[in-house]
Amino acid sequence: MTDPTAAQRPTQAVILAGGQGSRLRPYTDDRPKPMVEIPGTGTPIIGHQLAWLAEEGVTDVVVSCGHLAEVLQKWLETADLPVRVTTVVESEPLGRGGGLRYAAARLPYPDRPWYATNGDIWTRFSLRDMADFHTERDAIATLALARPRIPWGAVQTDGFGHITDFIEAPPSTFEINAGVYVFSPEFAGLLPERGDHERTTFPQLARERRLFGYPIPQGAYWRAIDTAKDLTEAAKELAALGR
């Protein structure tokens, strides 16, 4: 029997790859953040993302470039890619929401849903399951949610104040926006032409109860690569996972 939700899963995506990556210097002095390679993986972050999207049924990707766009574009032109890729470069800064709208205008199927991901995310989980979650709830936008490990050791106490345990880098008690999204076709029209959608579009959809959060399954790998320390930690974690 044909799965009725399968036909509604996105086959197109936007990767936001225009950030300055200032906290990753000197790695980003000569390349944009998505072109940084996690030691031992043999591929830049965006190469991993394109492979992951292809595995999840995506055939077309729009990459929104900015900082050192020509370096990323040259790599995309020469790499053996598993999907069709189009690049866009803003002629002037549009903000995160405006940039997302500008990139979405180049998607090949404007009347179909789409994924989006930040260009500095290294993760693996089922986008198909996330898309089904989105469809079942009639959402306009769905955000993947992660519980990152906090960078400090935690102390556990009892009711009297005795220290009972030390926990090294425990998961956060709060869920955060993991930088991976599923959007319905009408979402692009709700984005600002300039500015930040997380201050405008997302709050409005939340008030309308059309914005949903999808917890990344327990045990799935997720990390945002923001600093040199993140590179080191990701290399250790991925090596331990055999990736």
Description:
It holds the Pfam family NTP_transferase. InterPro entries: Mannose-1P_guanyltransferase, NTP_transferase_dom, Nucleotide-diphossugar_trans. This protein is α/β, with parallel strands linked by helices. It is built from seven helices and eleven strands. The protein has helices at residues 45-55, 69-78, 95-104, 127-136, 187-190, 201-207, 228-241, and strands spanning 12-17, 60-65, 84-89, 114-118, 121-124, 141-146, 154-157, 163-167, 176-183, 211-215, 221-224. The protein has a seven-stranded mixed β-sheet with strand order 3-2-1-4-9-6-10, sandwiched between helices. A two-stranded antiparallel sheet has the order 5-11. It starts with 11 loop residues before the first strand and ends with a helix.
